[in-house]
Request: fold
Amino acid sequence: MVDKVLLASPRGYCAGVERAVETVEKALELYGAPVYVRKQIVHNAHVVRELEERGAVFVDDEADVPEGETMVLSAHGVAPSVHENAEARGLRTIDATCPLVTKVHVQARRYAADGFTVVLIGHAGHEEVIGTMGEIPDSIILVESKEEVAELDLPADARLAYVTQTTLSVDETGEVITALRERFPDIRAPQREDICYATSNRQWAVKELLDQVDLLLVIGSRNSSNSNRLVETALAGGVPSYLIDDETEIEEAWVAEGVSVVGITSGASAPEKLVRRVCDWFTARGVAEIEEHRFLEEDIEFRLPIELRRELTLADAQGSG
Reply:
């Protein structure tokens, strides 16, 4: 029987997600519905559903947005061709790309401009990876594992640099980087690692929790890369772990005999109210002890996209005038 629930901290929304969601909310206030959003603004089904209820329309492609309408780009970033297509359609585009993803794009472009072939460590098909590869399509190679590093067909004197997707496993990415350095000792590395602070912090917070829990529940959607990495972090540490969208997906069998302490965390795109709902699920089953297990505090904030800030300032000035 479960006696206690420990909440990993930090967990949940990161600064990039908070900025992206607020961007859509402010755009709806400013322009009214509909506001079109290319792809899911963040990878969380609850967030997307709530924004849809307020008038956001999610589309797969900028070509699906009627000419002249407002379109918000998701936090995961896009290739330059998306901006070109949007301009050709006369769209009012608001770019909610996470600044940490933009940093990777800038880095990749600089490497390519300096004559390097860029190795991108990431997951094929992820929106962030598609956007980064679209920045320098003729100068970039994707690798997903250390095994793929061994298969790279590159000349010994190739000028190489690497960048990474921001939402990867810290440990697995370290293995790939080690393999790259062993095979290509002169490979250029970013000045700072690309895995974002929130992804790293949430993984470390889970590691700090593992020796105190019998089970870890990760709140996040199936397509959330950083949420899946949290499950993998727990499993690698020998603790059973499950990814859930909300409390309705908890199975009673998971918390049966032998499970006295349950850990809870949430991916960087999962709102805190989902954590509260999962806690309520345990409270309803007689669990009285629910405690924060604090690893560190996060105080990073990102300003809204510049094009939206300008419009909001203008609207305020007109309103006060």
